[in-house]
Amino acid sequence: SAVLRVFYRDAGGELTELRSVDAGGNRREFSVEAHDGGEIVLVTLGDADLNGVATIGDASSVAQSFIGLFSMSEYGELACDVDRNGLMTIGDASSIAQSFIGLFKLVWFE
User: Which end of the chain, N or C, is more open, meaning fewer C-beta atoms within 10 Å of its C-beta?
Assistant: First the structure.
């Protein structure tokens, strides 16, 4: 099943990743104190093209973005920063690819 990154963008544009709580039954819960002008942003972890599904092609797209063959959007970069260090790196591309053969697990932010 897909792992999402959930953010709150305040009226000033600052993004804060929201921690999830396992609510049982394959459900996650989030809470945020939202203010006027704020928005909730959801991206699928590892999904470079933002089509809602992380695929091996997304890992390739991340790698291609470093040599100018794929144009990554802001939300695509958020989705593909799988180690959540604030930077999308070639290591993230490797982790996305490894997730398809069981060598890396994409996990919720808790």
Answer: N
